[in-house]
Amino acid sequence: MTVPELLRSKTEGKRLSMITCYDYAFARLLSQSPADAILVGDSAAMVMHGHPSTLHATVNMMRLHTAAVVRGAGGKFVIADMPFLSYRKGISAALNAAQALMTAGANAVKLEGVAGHEDVIQRLVESGIPVMGHLGLQPQSVQLYGGYRVQGNTDGQAAEILRQAHLLEELGAFAVVLECVPVHLASSVTAALKIPVIGIGSGAACDGQILVLQDLLGLNIDFQPRFVRHFGEVGACVLAAIESYDHAVKSRDFPTASESYK
Ligand code: KIV
Asked: Which of 16, 66, 107, 201 keeps 20 to 30 A from 76, CA to CA?
């Protein structure tokens, strides 16, 4: 997958599946999957490091996760999230952050919102860095919302999200993630844009979907919002395997002679 191919998917009406990933082992598995692209999301701060929000992701954290994923991804298209405030401290700081992620091997960067950093988006694109936008629920603004809530419920908010989506396209973004907005708004944004709209918690009308890998695998046992489907119960599988190992060790069944060196 490349940026031109991602754009072509929209005109050809092909659905895109994207998945987050943060580490080498899962990236190797994803490299063998038909998924179209991998996002090294700043959700790494929560999923991999146990922080309460994505505000704890740093450029260095994202660089390390991106490099590990790229090493395992076997050439799949990898998008890396620009962390909290890394694109709000001026163009030079934003370019440095994007450089850290791109030289770690990312094919593109993603950043949240547009108001106040239009210049950064434009400069990144002019510098040859593909930019993915992120509208609707922007997890880096969770303190402003007072929690993780559906966005775009009022006519005014919906119009503003549509306006920002158009602006992202004009600034040169190659795709937009649209998180937790009502289905009718996701449908309008998808119809209005030429670039692919990738939904999460925004219904079926989007050009593609993205989910957090650990959520779709059933590994994130404390987190089951309405929009997450478990496509496997890997958490239960892991626990069963560990129980079985524990039992084999304690009953002296493991290791056998054939699992030992002569
Ligand atoms: O960080 C992340 O995982 C994301 C997805 C929810 C789209 O931004």
From this structure: 201
